[in-house]
Amino acid sequence: MGFGFGLVILALAQGALASGISDDLRRLERCHGLFVGERISKQSPLYVAVISGAMSGTDACMNLLDQARIGQDGRIPHVNGAPELTGHKILSNLVQFHRSQLESPDFNAASGGVRTREMDLFDANEPAFHFVYSLLKSGEPYSNVVTRPFGIRAIRYTARTTPRTRRVVDSGAILYSQGPGPTPAAWNPTLIDTGRIAGLVPDSVQNPVQILETSQAQYQGRNTNAHFGGGFLGSQAYLLATWNGSNFRVWAKDLLADALCKDIPVLRSLDVLQAVKPESTFAWRQGISCMQCHETMDPVSAAMRTQGLIRASPVNEARFWVSRPIDRPSAPYPSMSPDPDYSRRPPDYYLKYRSFDGTLVNLEGTGVASLGQALASRDDLYVCAAKRYFQFLTGIEADIRDDSDPLNPLDLSPSEKKYRQRVIDLGKQLKQDQSARELLKRIISSPTFIYPDRGV
Ligand code: HEC
After folding, report:
1. Count of structural domains within the chain
2. Quick check: CB of 247 below 6 Å from ligand 1?
3. CA 317/CA 264 separation, integer angstroms
4. DSSP H helices in 283-413
5. In terms of domains, do 108 and 66 share one?
6. Can you give the pLDDT at residue 164?
7. Is the CB of residue 165 below 6 angstroms from any atom belonging to ligand 1?
8. Count of other CB atoms within 10 angstroms of residue 334
9. What range defines the domain where residue 77 resides?
């Protein structure tokens, strides 16, 4: 017995001497740095468990991630009513990470801090919350980032017992108002929580507006906090962040980047020849290069065409999105000249792009929920997730653009090809099992995670 024990000690010591630190410890140190943003303490139970050989590095990393797991009540694990500190740091770092991956701007920051009217009504991080919720809530499929039929709201540590009814701007608090000016009625919407993030929940807040200007009376009683389906695509925050003042082109362009990691143009010149119409009154219809972007972006934007941005009051104006009535029949997507009834027709769209493997995807449907389903039905959504998490964890950026366009060869090096293939395989596995947590585990347990510079 004593002899065997001695051998184990010797083996441990030799392992430690040979490589400095063991691969298991290297894993834990690396994932602790990435998730928590700090070096792991040598007194931490996970450190002790790994160094004593009681737990593998991969298991320790998953254990760490689970400190930010979102429970049935939407909260991460709590100690004495407050979020456990490590879990809180992981949750807020993951929100930051997903925020940083989005092409769409933060709607508060987008206008240099001028547009503060909605900042207490909608959370600019909501698009990121959809990704984090799929990662940290157990059993939540990844596809829900674009198919979830509800919004996601943050629970914050300083949740108010009495809802706030004022928004705070530079010079002090201002009451929200509803109805026509110059003396509109008070409006007391439930505002978003402020403070340390403690969890994420389905957003069930109802903020109906009761009085509107006569021209908008048909929207009285509407929930200003409505979500329109399609996960992050149909959130008030995403619509505000991508609004260009007249149409949903930026929304469409940004969602392709945010869901699929695709930057237009994502069609080949040959794909759009049929769609080019030199006699059209639309400038972009007349050129092949124009249509390489517009033939993807414009028909996707059509899925949102019935949404309208209205304001609760011209005084202390807060804006929100409503679904406008559909009172005209479907019609082919305009190709020659403007259609005056365009925004009153069913939101028929088509989604046309070249996949990473060169497949020409062409799906059609009606409305944003259907668009989300279409995005979730292809591999690109998942390969994009794999690309992001692979880069987050290993620092290696994989190229997942269309690799079989004869006119635009990618010319990847052997190692670029290898990581591209690795990310594609990981994405396909994610599509199968829908678990972003398993995707992270696969990357963490690979040699690439601890030796990214060795080309493994
Ligand atoms: C790299 C992609 C890309 C290409 C190529 C491209 N566009 Fe665009 N185009 C966009 C985007 C994105 C918008 C929306 C910008 C916004 O609203 O802020 C846009 C908007 C427009 C608009 C404004 C339409 C409106 O009603 O608001 C016109 C006009 C336009 N493009 C014409 C053209 C023409 C003409 C060409 C070819 C010479 C072209 N575009 C090529 C991406 C592209």
Report:
1. 3
2. yes
3. 34
4. 288-301, 368-376, 380-394
5. no
6. 62
7. no
8. 15
9. 21-101
Cα-to-centroid distance, 3 and ligand 1 (Å): 76
Q: Do 129 and 188 fall within a single domain? A: yes
**pLDDT(211) > 50:** yes
Distance between Cα 72 and ligand 1 center (Å): 45
Look at residue 410 and tell me if it is in a domain.
yes
What integer is the mean pLDDT of 366-383? Answer: 98
- Minimal-distance CA residue to ligand 1 atom 41: 290
Nearest CA to ligand 1 atom 13: 249
Question: CA 233, CA 152: separation in Å to the nearest integer?
Answer: 12
Torsion angle in degrees (nearest 10) through CA of 98, 317, 228, 348:
-110
Tokens 């149409």 found at? 247
Residues 92 and 126 in one domain: no
Examine the fold and report which residue of 58, 81, 101 is the final residue of a domain before the chain moves on. Answer: 101
- The answer to whether residue 389 scores a pLDDT higher than 70 is yes
- Verdict on whether the full-model pTM lies above 0.90: yes
> What is the pLDDT confidence band of residue 83, given thresholds at 50, 70 and 90?
confident
- 80 or 246: which leads in pLDDT: 246
In a domain, residue 7? The reply is no
Tell me the Cα Rg of the chain: 25
Answer yes or no: do 47 and 180 share one domain: no
Q: Domain end: 79, 101, 123, which one?
A: 101
Domain assignment present for residue 9? The answer is no
Nearest ligand 1 atom, CA 282: 29
* 94-150 residue pLDDT tens: 999 999 999 998 887 765 555 557 888 999 999 999 999 999 999 999 999 999 999
Ligand 1 midpoint to CA 294 (Å): 7
Q: Are residues 344 and 411 both part of a single domain?
A: no
What separation in Å is there between the alpha carbon of 215 and the centre of ligand 1?
Answer: 32
In a domain, 1, yes or no: no
The alpha carbon of 442 and the centre of ligand 1 are apart by a number of angstroms equal to 40
Tell me the C-alpha to C-alpha distance, in Å, between residue 81 and each of 75, 77, 153, 156. 10, 9, 19, 12
Does 46 share its domain with 176?
A: no
Closest ligand 1 atom to residue 245 Cα is: 17
- pLDDT on residue 193: 84
Span 145-199, pLDDT tens digits: 999 999 999 998 865 555 566 666 555 677 889 999 899 999 988 888 888 899 9
The tokens for 172 are: 């002090």
